[in-house]
């Protein structure tokens, strides 16, 4: 059974995820930085640095949220970054952020379903995604869509939470995720389910070599994985 934010609701996971992010959109950026002690900023920098050599001109940022990874992607000097997300609440916060930073001419944020992208095949030089694939209703379908709209030879870079395996980080991480994060998340976001769903969805996600296997299955090549911050997060890369 799929892990969903609102266990008593009958909506699909996709609709529940959109509802959840709409609910917490106003507090999302603050909570991201607060609950990770700012390490999420470092993770994004590491991910985008992997695109420096290829210098992609057209970048698609999947599950862009409020656009933090899209903004970081400007460091590789693309012509344009297109962000897509199913949450109108997150996109509204993101668009306001782009306007304030004067980036609306370089970054376009669009409403879109990552599992049914509105773009033609072979449209983008690179695709990025930070903490989004875990929320896909159908993981293989979402990854297949990334493959479809990526140009041959293009690179995909995916950031996602993973599960530490070494003592004592494994035990500390599990305690924090199950006992600390949900309390602060609920208190600040006012959404009872959002930060309970997060650790549950991380636990259910096929991380590490299992995720590489899925990337291979949907047609990606040169799939690689590197662990960050004692295994709390991973960067996955692949080529079409």
Automatic annotation (TrEMBL):
Matching CDD domains: AdoMet_MTases (cd02440)
Name of the protein in its database record: Demethylmenaquinone methyltransferase
Family the UniProt entry places it in: Belongs to the class I-like SAM-binding methyltransferase superfamily. MenG/UbiE family.
Pfam families the record matches: Ubie_methyltran (PF01209)
Function: Methyltransferase required for the conversion of demethylmenaquinol (DMKH2) to menaquinol (MKH2).
Ubl conjugation recorded as keyword: no
Binding-site positions, S-adenosyl-L-methionine: 66, 85, 113-114
Known EC number: 2.1.1.163
Gene Ontology biological process: methylation
UniProt enzyme class: transferase
InterPro entries from the UniProt entry: SAM-dependent_MTases_sf (IPR029063), UbiE/COQ5_MeTrFase (IPR004033), UbiE/COQ5_MeTrFase_CS (IPR023576)
MF terms (GO), sorted A to Z: 2-methoxy-6-polyprenyl-1,4-benzoquinol methyltransferase activity; demethylmenaquinone methyltransferase activity
Reactions this protein catalyses: a 2-demethylmenaquinol + S-adenosyl-L-methionine = a menaquinol + S-adenosyl-L-homocysteine + H(+)
Pathway(s) the chain acts in: Quinol/quinone metabolism; menaquinone biosynthesis; menaquinol from 1,4-dihydroxy-2-naphthoate: step 2/2
SUPFAM superfamilies: S-adenosyl-L-methionine-dependent methyltransferases (SSF53335)
Gene3D superfamilies: Vaccinia Virus protein VP39 (3.40.50.150)
Keyword annotations from UniProtKB, A to Z: Menaquinone biosynthesis, Methyltransferase, S-adenosyl-L-methionine, Transferase
